[in-house]
Structures are given as C-alpha cells and as structure tokens.
Amino acid sequence: MGGSGGSGYEVDIIGGGAGGPSCSTLSFDAPVASPDPAVVAQISVHDTCDVVVAGVPPQVRLLVRPIGAQLGALTERIADLTKCIADGYRYEAEVISTAPVVRVRVRPQRNN
Length: 112
Description:
This protein is an alpha+beta fold. Helices cover 20% and strands 31% of the residues. It has 3 helices and 6 strands. The N terminus is likely disordered. Strands 1-6-5-2-3-4 form a 6-stranded antiparallel beta sheet. It has a single domain, classed as Alpha-Beta Plaits (2-Layer Sandwich).
C-alpha cells in the first residue's frame, strides 16, 4: 500500500528496469559538483569537457578540452553514466552556465 509508488521512480532514475535510459540517447543537464575555481576562471559557456570515470571510489569527472584540467565532478545519474561508460559509450559535457552555478549538458560524444 503506502510505499508502492516510489519504486518505479527509483528504477527510472537508476536505469535498472525496462524503462531505464538508452546509453545511446542518455542526455541531461546537471550542476558540477566541487568545481575548481582556477579552472572555472578559464572556461566559457559552450566549452566542452570529456566525461570520464576515474578514482577509487569511482567518480564521474569532467575534463576540459583540450587542456585536460579537471573542472569538477557529476553527482547526478552516476549509475547510468558509469554503466554506459563501462559498456563502451563515450560522453561529453557542454558548459551551459558558469555563474552562479557551473552547469553542464551531458550527451553522447559526437564522432569526429
């Protein structure tokens, strides 16, 4: 009765069920966690970052192209991103705002 409505929401967010996101179309906007102020001072809206999984425990990190400096990390959709990246998909994040909060738009990486 009481808690039955919540489980479907968790499956959709985590992507564990049939309603989960497709890795080839996974796209969302998110704030950057713990942005490095020195790196933020060097970026502009429309700059692009590589989305990578690194560290122990694993973190989803944003590395600014072409300099490779770590802008910060993502805390949203971690389960989806880590699974999809482990499955061979690659993602990029476009800076959509730098103030008052650094935000990015994550999407599958375009093939060059």
